[in-house]
Design a protein that fits this description.
The strands form four sheets. This protein has a nine-stranded mixed sheet with strand order 9-8-10-11-7-12-13-14-15, sandwiched between helices. It has helices at about 65-70, 90-105, 120-125, 135-140, 155-170, 180-185, 190-205, and strands at about 5-10, 15-20, 30-35, 40-45, 60, 75, 80-85, 110-115, 140-145, 170-175, 210-215, 240-245, 250-260, 270-275, 280-285, 290, 295-300. The chain contains seven helices and 17 strands.
């Protein structure tokens, strides 16, 4: 008898709205979170991946580090998703902010969504390694947002990202990290739903020509090589991985490229160091094997040098 049915629900500390019938028109299916605010009701519709056409790729984004750009055949294509994966403390966020730093020098704006550390801590430690995030914020080239797990719903976070890129005119988004994204929103969503929502958000950003960087933490410091434990690697057009190595009794780091959808890439790994001057990348580690296990061996002991890192 009715032309429309709107169902309101409250569960797991979230208010939701769901349209199950709307005669004479299409509608966005599924549950959409909503909040009651001082100025009224705010609804955050789910993003649907199939609704967006991918923007044509025009240019590449340089890291500003020649060795990394060589590994990536000139850089990262605009409007693509890049996953930077590796264990804790290896330099994933630092690498993402390096791309942001170089883009800011060319006049481009970026947004960082940090799920793990507050903006002050991130800016302070970045300043110590010659990545002046605070200066970029002051110059309106960067927006840094701490995502509070008790403040946002999953749909609200996606809504805010969409609003921010339009208001800030951002061309790069860094989500730090996907692991914490899952921990933040898994109270009301299963892993399959979380991946689907992230897929939709990435597709929307790509349709706007926005370049996305996502950091991903893996548990293994050394040993078995794992790209991600969240089954999200298919979302990435590009995958850069960072590894710890045990070399001559010291803990070292290496960088490599596992996937690049739009072009070829260098299939060797390089030494990766973070210094007070910034990121330093050496020559290809051609004289070693077993790097992915974390226990490399020199093929020729006479070549066991620093492989170009200063």
């Amino acid at each position: 008898m009715v032309d429309g049915i709107i169902c309101l629900n409250y569960e797991n500390l979230e208010n939701t709205l769901e349209i199950s019938k709307y005669r004479g028109s299409g509608f966005n299916k599924g549950k959409h979170t909503m909040k009651f605010k001082n100025n009224g009701i705010e609804v955050y519709p789910q993003l649907k991946a199939s609704n967006y056409d991918i923007a044509p790729i025009k240019h590449k984004i340089s890291s500003g580090i020649s060795e990394i750009d060589k590994m990536l055949s000139g850089g990262i294509e605009e409007g693509t998703v890049t996953m930077i994966t590796g264990p804790s403390g290896v330099g994933k966020t630092t690498l993402g902010t390096q791309f942001i730093k170089n883009s800011a020098e060319k006049g481009k704006k970026s947004i960082i969504y940090t799920f793990e550390e507050n903006s002050i801590t991130l800016m302070d430690r970045s300043k110590a390694i010659n990545i002046p995030l605070e200066e970029m914020v002051d110059n309106n080239k960067l927006l840094v947002k701490k995502v509070n797990p008790f403040e946002y719903t999953l749909d609200e976070f996606s809504y805010e990202v969409r609003s921010d890129i339009n208001h800030h005119d951002a061309s790069i988004v860094l989500i730090d990290s996907i692991s914490s994204y899952f921990l933040t929103f898994n109270r009301n969503h299963g892993s399959v739903d979380l991946v689907r929502r992230l897929h939709s958000l990435c597709d929307y950003l790509k349709s706007q020509g926005v370049t996305v960087f996502i950091t991903n933490e893996i548990k293994n410091i050394t040993g078995e090589f794992i790209v991600t434990s969240t089954e999200t690697s298919y979302l990435a057009d590009n995958i850069i991985f960072l590894r710890y190595l045990e070399m001559n009794g010291k803990l070292e780091k290496a960088i490599g490229v596992l996937k690049k959808r739009m072009s070829g890439f260098e299939n060797t790994m390089r030494r990766y160091r973070i210094t007070s001057e910034g990121i330093n990348v050496g020559e290809p580690l051609n004289n070693m094997r077993g790097i992915l296990t974390g226990n490399p061996e020199f093929l020729d002991e006479r070549l066991g040098n620093n492989n170009g890192c200063k």
